[in-house]
Specification:
94% helix; rod-shaped; single chain; mainly alpha; 72 residues; 0% strand
Length: 72
């Protein structure tokens, strides 16, 4: 004969385990999301400084061209 209390206990254990693993994966996803945000922030910083340097080089070139034009 089947003992329904044993079946209920097994179901409760399965549900608890699934919920714990779900929380674990939720935490993993959150940590991964935070990690990706940090990397993206660093990438934007690198992009910003690279663009800033390129812009400065262009400005320096334009200033040199203006001085050359004035010297003529």
């Amino acid at each position: 004969m089947v003992d329904y209390k044993d079946i209920e206990l097994a179901q409760v254990k399965v549900i608890k385990t699934a919920l714990q693993k779900g929380r674990k994966y939720d935490n993993f996803a959150k940590n991964y999301e935070d990690y990706l945000k940090k990397l993206l922030k660093e990438l934007y910083k690198v992009y910003y400084y690279t663009a800033k340097e390129k812009n400065c080089e262009r400005l320096d070139d334009k200033i040199e061209q203006m001085f050359k034009a004035m010297a003529i």
